[in-house]
């Protein structure tokens, strides 16, 4: 799902890596746990930090977990953070409703993949249409991952984040629910709303998202004091 961003950053000479969380992509056979997801993010960040300042970018589930990670009591070696399609507190009625909808969708014939593919054909440009599901769909990890989000303390995490921070959302993203709260909790953050985009903003409007990414890369490069370029 990050192909358009990886190609864009490579063309700019910015080293970048997209990781799979447990239960997803190349790790789809693994059991998802919140601890294992945080460990995967931490391992990638610390590996990249050996080569320069790190710009962390997360989307949706990954964005929520990255928010918890970036706002840990002991700050990780992150020089900037782009939180994409994840400005919602995953608790209470909203989370229960999301899990119920996901369960109903998965109960459809073929887990509703035919409907997913139809929606992607109708909303994503042809150049990114195949990217979103190219690593497979994490059906088995879905409910476990959603349920685990309820223990995240994003309010505390956001208050602790001191590095440059951007919230990037599609105009029609359902996870804009607590957007204003997130900005109050992290008043130094910048909000970027991409017009005519849904939750899948990275694939639906890749040029616009990449422009926001370029801004974040430039800021991290300017604030770095070691003379080395950023890694995403």
TrEMBL record:
InterPro entries: AB_hydrolase_1 (IPR000073), AB_hydrolase_fold (IPR029058), AB_hydrolase_sf (IPR050266). Keywords: Hydrolase. The keyword Amino-acid biosynthesis does not apply. It comes from the Bacteria. One of its GO terms (molecular function) is hydrolase activity. Residues 1-212 form the AB hydrolase-1 domain. This is Alpha/beta hydrolase. It comes from Microbacterium marinilacus.
